[in-house]
Amino acid sequence: MSAQNAGPVGGTAAPASSADGGAAALKQLAGQHATGYRSVGVMVYDILKDAILNGALLPGQKLRQETLAELIGVSRLPVRSALIQLEADGLVEFHDRRGAVVKSLSPAQAKEVYDIRVLLEVEALRLTMAALTDARVARLRELGKAADRQQEGSDFVDARTEFYAELYDAEQRPVLWEMIEQLRLKVGRYVLGWRLVGDAEHSHTHEQLIEAVASGEVDRAVDVLRDHLVGVRDAVLELLEAESTATDAAAPASRGRAQR
């Protein structure tokens, strides 16, 4: 089955960039990830995660294991394992009748995620600044420039992840970092790739935060971080509320067509 005639991976309407249900994007990602992996399972997981984060697979879209396996060029077993891991990450959910679907967030859920993120990330920043070194500041400058050069897709995700892992000292605080990363993944697809929220994310450069951290002024650094998170949260909520309104408005028309 080719990407052109495979049909949608799921049944949700997609934007022009993924009008085939993400089939072409999955084929492309499979080619990009084809080498350098220790296992097929890790490769499939990375392909599907990238496809969700960059919008090739849409919130609410059904994920048929056999279709995904054929598009990526693997058996169904690693696809099943990857979907289970993505469920743990908060990117996929399983339903009794529909099977696996890309997880959607309600405005209330997104707000809760960001409220928790603010608490955890502010605490992580305070802990880092209590033991800040010149070497860490220099590394943050290097990683911040790399992150600001990336504009979209998995490279953008990876660059920002590396920056914040250094900022929050993930090596010394692995449990705290894992909790932060889980929350970031839950809302990542609403901020990255095709669902980038206005200029909320790109208007933020890491230089402002780095300079605040380098100054040693904890309250100043916390204010910069909190303002950024709250700004992105508000933009995400605006998008989700607009989509919810559009869905509610379309529902009567859909029911009318079904009854005719």
TrEMBL record:
| Pfam families documented for this protein | FCD, GntR
Give the CDD domains listed for this entry.
WHTH_GntR
Tell me which InterPro entries the record gives: GntR_C (IPR011711), TF_FadR/GntR_C (IPR008920), Tscrpt_reg_HTH_GntR (IPR000524), WH-like_DNA-bd_sf (IPR036388), WH_DNA-bd_sf (IPR036390)
Is Metal-binding set as a keyword in this record? no
Query: What positions does the domain HTH gntR-type occupy?
Result: 38-105
Enumerate the UniProt keywords alphabetically. DNA-binding, Transcription, Transcription regulation
GO molecular function terms here?
A: DNA binding; DNA-binding transcription factor activity
PANTHER family in the record: GLUCONATE OPERON TRANSCRIPTIONAL REPRESSOR (PTHR43537:SF24), TRANSCRIPTIONAL REGULATOR, GNTR FAMILY (PTHR43537)
Name of the protein described by the UniProt record: HTH gntR-type domain-containing protein
